[in-house]
Amino acid sequence: MEFERMPTVPTADEILDRSFRRAAKKMKEKLNKDRANEEFVRAVGAAIHDRLVYVIRGFPEFEEIPQFYREMVEILYGIDAIKQSLGAVGWAAKHTKMVGHEIAVQSRKSSETLVLRKRAVARLASMVHQIDKDLRFLNEVRNTLRKLPHIEDAFTIVIAGYPNVGKSSFIRLVSSATPEIASYPFTTKGVIVGMRMEGRNRIQFVDTPGILDRPADERNPIERQALSAMINVASVILFILDPSEHCGYPMEVQLHLLAEVKEKVKVPLIIVANKSDITVQSEYLSMSTETRDGVDVVLAQLLLHRKDWEESHKANEHPADEKPEDCPSI
């Protein structure tokens, strides 16, 4: 995933310290004191510019990343806010190099090169400190995005439903994921990915945070992540209900949320009633993640959709009206 390669974003002081040290090395190469001061100014401006450009280039083009990750960035921080901070860094990169060059040119024609050098250091440091908040914000963004789960281009089962209905318990039983499980809502704070091997095929499970039945603009970032996963990465969705209502939510609101999900998604939807060790709902598939009763049956139902996904996936890779590039014309 592209986020994994994002480098650490340094603070203003770290950029200045590194740039001054780099410029000091350049300065030592000049025997003439005036030329040394000139070279220091030129080198420190260029070093700051290069470091700031490196920061900008460490971020991806958000328009080019997959829709799911684009929505994750928007939910967590806001793409416009990130671009605004990157723009501030770009401004500083441009002007630090410009100021370094201008004062270096002045130094060549002046006998007060030490004064000009001190002036350059003050101006450059001031500009970099102006964007310190942007640099710290971008480093926070970088640290968060690097921790987003890696979602492969594979058959993906997204687990959905109200908080505390048994989503995390199910994914722990059938995949490699080890989500936190507790008897209070919103234990899952973000999207969790687990894998399962079926022969040579990798099956991807995505455990989503619980969603509440309320207007879209009232949903918190955790709920919005869950909806994004369902819409953008699911090959099939397992919607878990809790007829026992031990989750803390009545069936009426759980079913209302189910109806909304049905309207939003275009992939197969499997509905299962969990906690059959407490209450059985004959209208739906049933299971108990506590006793594991019925879990294998539910998993088998989900895997029935894998073949359809594979065929659809191949068709999308090579549409009927296109020939693969390595196929000769007939």
How many domain units?
2
Question: What is the CATH domain class of the largest domain?
Answer: Alpha Beta
Classify the beta-strand content into a percent band. 5-15%
CATH architecture of the largest domain: 3-Layer(aba) Sandwich
Mean pLDDT rating: 84
- Distance from N terminus to C terminus (CA atoms, Å) equals 38 Å
Question: How many helices does DSSP assign?
Answer: 11
Number of strands: 6
Sketch the major β-sheet: 6 strands, mixed
Task: Classify the helix fraction into a percent range.
Answer: 40-55%
CATH topology of the largest domain: Rossmann fold
Gyration radius over CA: 28 Å
Structural class: alpha/beta
Q: Low-confidence segments, ≥5 residues, pLDDT <50? A: 179-188, 323-330
H/E series? HHHHHHEHEEHEHEEHH
Overall geometric form: elongated
What is the fourth-level CATH superfamily of the largest domain? P-loop containing nucleotide triphosphate hydrolases
Q: In order across it, which strands form the biggest sheet?
A: 2-3-1-4-5-6
Account of the 3D structure:
By secondary structure, the chain is α/β, with parallel strands linked by helices. It is elongated. The protein folds into two domains: 2-145, Four Helix Bundle (Hemerythrin (Met), subunit A), CATH 1.20.120.1190; 155-317, P-loop containing nucleotide triphosphate hydrolases (Rossmann fold, 3-Layer(aba) Sandwich), CATH 3.40.50.300. The protein contains eleven helices and six strands. It has helices spanning 12-28, 33-57, 67-76, 79-108, 113-130, 132-145, 167-174, 221-232, 251-264, 295-303, 306-317, and strands at 155-161, 192-198, 201-207, 236-241, 269-273, 285-286. Strands 2-3-1-4-5-6 form a six-stranded mixed beta sheet, with helices on both faces. Strand 2 (192-198) and strand 3 (201-207) form a beta hairpin.
